[in-house]
Write a structure and sequence with these properties.
The chain is of the alpha+beta class. Helices cover 36% and strands 21% of the residues. It has two domains: 179 residues, Ribosomal Protein S5, domain 2 (2-Layer Sandwich), CATH 3.30.230; 127 residues, Alpha-Beta Plaits. The strands form two sheets. Strands 2, 3, 7, 8, 9, 10, 11 and 12 form an eight-stranded antiparallel sheet that branches. Strands 5-6-4-1-13 form a five-stranded mixed sheet, with helices on one face. Helix 1 packs parallel to helix 2.
Length: 324
Amino acid sequence: MSASNKSVSVFAPASIGNVSVGFDVLGLAVKPIDGTLLGDVVTVNESQSNEDNLTVIGNFADKLPSNKEDNIVWSCLLLFNERLKSVNQVPVALELVLDKKMPVGSGLGSSACSVVAALAGLNAYYAKYQGFSFAENVVLKMTGEMEAQISGSLHYDNVAPCYLGGLQLMVPDEDVISRVLPNFDDCYYVMAYPGIEVSTKAARDVLPTSYSRSDVIAYGQNLATFVDACHRQDKQQAFSVLTDVVAEPYRTDLLPRYKESRDYLAAQGALAVGISGSGPTVFCVCDSKSQADEFAQWLTDNYLQTELGFVHVCKVDEVGATEL
């Protein structure tokens, strides 16, 4: 095989961080049912110049730093090479291409998509052409390290579902990190990105530094009930407690039209409505496609605020990062 043919592309899907009841500890990977790639793609090619390089393309490329050294995908390459050397593997020169399909600051795990696509892509490339790969858990830890570099704190609620797929619960065991929970196969998730940006840092800064005892009890009870209901496949119970007492009360004012949209969709029979990650994307859970289509149209008409906005009817992405 000639050098020019050595190439691997990996797609990493969007995710809902927190899932309302699980601040920093629950995440859900989603995919549009119409086949749209809602996420990022990183292509790893053997370098023709014998030097590492990064090119950024895609709809949202202009929202990222112009210097490759300031791009998180470049940081992923540096980290991956460092880890290779730590296990006596010799890095090869590579050219990476990030196809930035995901809006920045959207609440859909945009940075996680780039990080996961990069690290999973690098691992797949080395597995295919160098005969070496890191274990899944090692790659997952690297994705967490990169997310922490961006957000300032270590949380896996976007990178774990983005990498592994499904509904993921983060556990306090660094050898396990994440456990997959049973989800509800017949549910549809309407994702509405209004086309405006909300900084994750700003969304964290509005949160209080301490919570009342009653809020702590409500949070624990809701999360425990949701996890139990997932294992028992009790859909009504699961979504009846999908209430955010940690972040949503403080973030609502950051999100124009969110409260009105939430109240309308809930009144119309949505199983649950919440903020995806730190916003501004809204997710709405439906148990029929006809209801999902109806709510998608309503959100298109009433929640989108710029031409960059979009609405997708999604199902759970059970696979996560995928080689294309």
